[in-house]
Amino acid sequence: MSGPDLSRSAKKGLPLAMIRTAMSRIPRAVRIIATVAFVIACVLAPLKAVPLVHGWWQAHETQVAVAKELPVEPPLVVLASAPDTLQLVPGATEKLGLELTEVAAAPAPEPLRLDGTLFLDANRMVNVRCRFNGDVIAVGEVADNDPGDESAGQPVRMRSLRYGDIVKPGQLLLIVSSKDLGEKKSEFVDALLSLQTTRERLERLEKLLKQQAVPEKSVLESRRELAGAEVAATRAERTLRSWGMADADMQGLRKEADEMRQKNWVSHPDEELNWGRVEIRAPAAGTIVEKNVVVGEMTSDRTLFKIADLSRLDVMAHVYEEDLPDLENLASQQRHWTIQLKSEPKALALRGCFNRIGSIIDPSQHTALVMGSVDNSQARLRVGQFITARIELPHVSGELAVPATAVVDKDGENYVLVKSAEQPLQFRLTRVSTTRRCESKVCLNGAATSAPDLHEGDVIIVRGAVEMIAELDRLKANAVKPATSPAPGPSDAVPAPAAAAAVTPSNDQSMRTTWDALRRIAMCVPRRRG
């Protein structure tokens, strides 16, 4: 044997040699006593275990015999002759712990409460501009006296218009001196003078033509000049009217032109100073919500004032997308809301209406905008305030209410178990259509239930509905088993009356099943060969 083989043999024999060495160190008397004790234990253990196993088996056989002699209890629930109907035995309601209740009329739906903000009504706001460039030489004024000063005889103090002042239609806002306007006025007066002069010249030439004192060509040329002068006068007049020149001012220019033609016109310093004067007045009543001009500025092409009518404000509220169908189903005469200020929760709410529902859903809040208006004739509301809009929802005719535990979701449909009026122990499976949920109740559409319809006052199962519907499905499955199914064996035979009931296995059946399983496991364990 070579060196490696000898070393491997030495390694295999090393544990056995160690055991022999250890055993040799134990006294012989101790080894003899241990051997005798092991032999006695091997003999006495079976003698003690066999009576115990025998007694347990006899007790088991006794229980099986007693269970076979006990009468089979009838089932508590069976299928009725009507489709999708359960039949209960007397007293089964208490034994199964079922709870019944009556179907009631649905309560009025809770009003929608939407958070929103107040805005200016864009259709009630005007932007005041000047139609031509000029220098602002004055701003309109209002009285600045405190209440009671006028009655006390104190003089009226005036101040310039500012943000928040209330103005009336036609009230003076600005006085502008415009070079462009002065030029257009001068052009109009000049066109009137030229027109009158050309007309008088044509009249003289026509008289001379009748006397054959002038050639006809001169008359024709004068007529062409008159037509040109009429066009120029008309153009100048239309330009001034497009800039908002009043009829009284236009008549003043015509009078001035006549005076100049008759050479009896006298120039006045005030008229020269006010030749390019333009008065800008308020086009409508309202509150100044923006002022962008002071004395000495150029008007240019910009908004000078913004005047808004605050007697009615816009409301923009946010509605969750699941509440949109409730709003869209409201008729136009039902689209009213009441507005409550969040800063004044106990104040009297104001009535308004909404007429627009936004078509865009906010991706972050999943809400849409509901837009409407609210009356502010008492000036209680302010633009930008947070509000709560309350919308009353109409009560649906024929709507019913049941506890939420009575409705069972099965295959995507909702069902309830309804007690039969003719057979008090029968319960019919009825499909229902839910409309909304309110607290612990579910509201149903009475017109959308399966036949026969569900009515107010019908009795339904509240507690135990899920278990009873599951039992109905099990009984229906057992009732339609195919005839080709394998015949049950002797150990699987069940009495016919008990086959339709929900039977739980008894103690003896459980014990027998456990014993059979242990016996199979023991047969599968391989035995150790000696």
Shape: elongated
Q: Tally the beta strands.
A: 26
Distance between the termini: 32 Å
Determine the number of helices (DSSP H or I, runs of at least 4 residues): 10
Oligomer: single chain
Secondary-structure class: alpha+beta
Low-confidence stretches: 1-12, 483-511, 517-530
The share of residues in helices is 25-40%
Major beta sheet, specifics?
6 strands, antiparallel, barrel
| Strand order of the biggest β-sheet | 5-15-18-17-16-19
What fraction of residues sit in β-strands? 25-35%
The radius of gyration computed from the alpha-carbon positions, rounded to a whole number of angstroms, is: 53 Å
Report the average pLDDT across residues.
Answer: 79
Give a summary of the structure in a few sentences.
By secondary structure, the chain is an alpha+beta fold. 35% of the residues lie in helices and 25% in strands. The protein has 10 helices and 26 strands.
How is the secondary structure organized here?
Blueprint: H1 3-25, H2 28-69, E1 77-79, E2 85-88, H3 92-96, E3 99-102, E4 104-105, E5 112-119, E6 125-128, E7 135-139, E8 141-143, E9 158-160, E10 166-167, E11 172-177, H4 179-210, H5 216-242, H6 247-261, H7 269-273, E12 277-281, E13 286-291, E14 305-308, E15 312-320, H8 324-328, E16 336-341, E17 350-357, E18 367-375, E19 386-391, E20 399-403, E21 408-410, E22 413-419, E23 426-432, E24 434-438, E25 441-445, E26 459-463, H9 465-479, H10 507-524
Antiparallel strand pairs: 1-2, 2-23, 3-26, 4-20, 5-15, 5-19, 6-14, 7-11, 8-9, 10-13, 11-12, 13-14, 15-18, 16-17, 16-19, 17-18, 20-25, 21-22, 22-23, 24-25
